[in-house]
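1st attempt posting a full record on here, be nice pls
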Amino acid sequence: EVQLVESGGGLVQAGGSLRLSCATSGFTFDDGAIAWFRQAPGKEREGVSCISSSDDSTYYADSVKGRFTISSNNAKDTVYLQMNSLKPEDTAVYYCAAGRFFGLCALPGGMDYWGKGTLVTVSS
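the predicted structure (as tokens):
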């Protein structure tokens, strides 16, 4: 059974930084991906970033390019999202997700397993 547990959310001022962690277990998709999504109140869930399980290829949404960095540890059982230069519009619940296909990792429908989310609040 695949399990994903997010941590690291919190309250930060605009311009600050946070690092989210996603601890994974049971994830054995050789060509799959781990992704971060976010959902703000009243908005649809959107793909933020993802990393390939096979070759560490990455994807970033335009809204976070240059500010967020996704990475994994050597054991590839924890994925991080370093978020710098945070803006109030980054406020959302951030979810970690696992899927079988890197090519679908930016789409909520392309992911197979989800964590429960961690709240990030950026104050102005």
